[in-house]
Every structure is written in C-alpha cells, then in structure tokens.
Amino acid sequence: MTLFTDIIEGKRPGFIFFEDDHHVAILDKYPIDTGHSLVIPKKPYEKIIDMPKNEVAELFSLVPQIANAILKATGAVAFSIAQNNGKEAKQIIPHVHIHIIPRYADKATMWTKREIPEDD
Q1: Catalytic option among 23, 36, 95, 97
Q2: Cβ-based neighbour number of residue 35 at 10 Å
Q3: What is the pLDDT of residues 60-78, one digit of tens each?
C-alpha cells in the first residue's frame, strides 16, 4: 500500500477534486505553487513502465481536462507537467502520478527542492 492508496481509500486525508472509476486528482500536500495537483491511477503501479499501455494512455488523456479545470480555478496562465519514475528521478511516493503545476504571469516560480518529512 502507498500513501496515495490510503488517500484513495479514505484512510488518510487528501483533497480529491476529481474521481472516476480508475483515477483521482488531488491537491499536492507540498505544492511548488498554488493549485499544484496530482493525477493518480487507483491501481498502485510503482513506475509508468509497469503499467499496460492502455492504462498509460487513459491516465495521460485526463491531463487536458484536469489542467483546464486547474487553470480556471486558479487564474494561472500556463502549466507544467512532470512524471517521475524511481528514487533517482526524485519520485517520492512509489505510486505513479502526474504533476500538474500551474504557472502565473506575475510569478517566476521555478522548480524547487522540496523536503518531505519522513513520517509522510
């Protein structure tokens, strides 16, 4: 089980703002910027290469819909997406997820090093 599995199953708090039969989207607990969100498959694959191709396609097909909702809700003018695989790639939680990070015209937020407490 992973932290994301616990959030999906309601065992841990998390702000789920989108859910279908196979995926959820949540706000990142340690956001790079306001509205930073994660799109997560409910099945706990560790890396994207562990997923069947059709499930990868289904996961990524949600990005435009969710990104548009984030842009509308936050007033951001652009966004970045990221998907990390493995500890060396800075994947913190071993459960596939896509980061959608809103970008704002009046901010110059860059990628930042985030420290995640060990107990999370």
Answers
A1: 97
A2: 22
A3: 999 999 999 999 999 999 9
